[in-house]
Amino acid sequence: MQRKTFTHTLLALAAALLVAPLAAQAQAVKLTLGHGAAPGNPRHEAALKFAEVLKAKTAGRIEVQVAPSAQLGDDAAMVTALRTGALDMSANSQGAVANAVPEYAAYGMPFMFSTPAQAFKLLDGPLGKELADKSADKGMIVLGYWDNGIRHMTSGKRAITKVEDMKGLKMRTPPDAVLVDIMQSLGAEAQQIKFAELYVALQQGVVDGQENPLVNIHASKLYEVQKHLALTSHMFQMTPFLMSKRSWDRLSEADRKAVSDAAVEATALQRKLSQEADDKLLADLKAKGVLVTTPDKAAFVKATASVDDKWAAGPIGPYVKKVIAAARSN
């Protein structure tokens, strides 16, 4: 009887030892995804989609908590957190990421792309792969390049129809060195203010105007404090969807594939939503009483030509030249 009990105990122990590695392998994983956009923005909708798809692909084992509206800090803080592993994922701004990986700035050269599709043709090819490799060297894994739209200017002070209208305007910019150069080349004064604080800054007249894609202007209700919208299309910006390399390295091969596959679906949705949003938001902004102008683009292009030259001659010049050449050949 004792031998029988002993045998059962041995068998139970052996079974437990066999199951233990499987249990460890199937351990639940919790990830946090932070971004600065408001709910309703395509960035937030795509982040939710990513979480939903990844949960489904891993039978509920990997859960992603999405924190919108800069709940985890501004974009610069989130880039730092990604690189240290304090934050798992972020759909972040091009300018903030460029502070860590300067080559991202190449895609923001003034008036280089008239549609996001032209930019994605480059980003989905060898130039985007080169950028992803440079990102990995700085502790960030590129999961996808999302669309932050073609950027336009708003003003609470006066309509912008020509370059001269920019002179002396206090324009808010994100932490993006190229945008600062663009504003200065147009005669405006660039001031950096966190996006979460922008509405109040505009309302109180701390700055005269700002620039953003239509989807950000609409989702954050900036039209309530800015009467004039100029369709300048002065810059394309992407939203790099990134994962901390430290978080990535902790995942199994199977989990990395699930993350990558979910990111592909989320990226396709984000780009689609961004395109659809741009198509309908202009009409809605006009209906809300925003006065829309279409400036003389040729004069703006000429005034900002020095920005291309400056960046082509700088430390990331070789990559900037490749991007400019590829954009112009499209």
Describe this structure in words.
The protein has 14 helices and 9 strands. The protein has one domain (2-101, 109-320): Bacterial extracellular solute-binding protein, family 7 (D-Maltodextrin-Binding Protein, domain 2). It is an alpha/beta fold and 330 residues long. The longest helix is centred in the last third of the chain and has 35 residues, at 253-287.
Give a quick precis of the structure.
The protein has 330 residues and is an alpha/beta fold. The chain is built from 14 helices and 9 strands. Strands 1, 2, 3, 4, 5, 6, 7, 8 and 9 form a 9-stranded mixed beta sheet that branches.
Q: What name is given to the CATH topology?
A: D-Maltodextrin-Binding Protein, domain 2
Total domains:
1
Radius of gyration: 23 Å
Characterize the main sheet: 9 strands, mixed
β-strand number? 9
CATH superfamily: Bacterial extracellular solute-binding protein, family 7
H-E string = HEHEHEHHHEEHEHEHEHHEHHH
Shape: globular
- What is the share of helical residues? 40-55%
Please give a handful of descriptors for the protein shown.
330 residues; alpha/beta; D-Maltodextrin-Binding Protein, domain 2; nine-stranded mixed sheet; 14 helices; globular
Strand and helix map with partners:
Layout: H1 2-25, E1 29-35, H2 42-57, E2 62-67, H3 75-84, E3 89-91, H4 94-98, H5 116-123, H6 126-137, E4 140-155, E5 170-173, H7 177-185, E6 189-192, H8 198-203, E7 209-212, H9 214-219, E8 228-244, H10 245-250, H11 253-287, E9 291-293, H12 297-303, H13 305-312, H14 317-329
Parallel strand pairs: 1-2, 1-3, 5-6, 5-7, 8-9
Antiparallel strand pairs: 3-8, 4-7, 4-8
Helix pairs in contact: 2-11
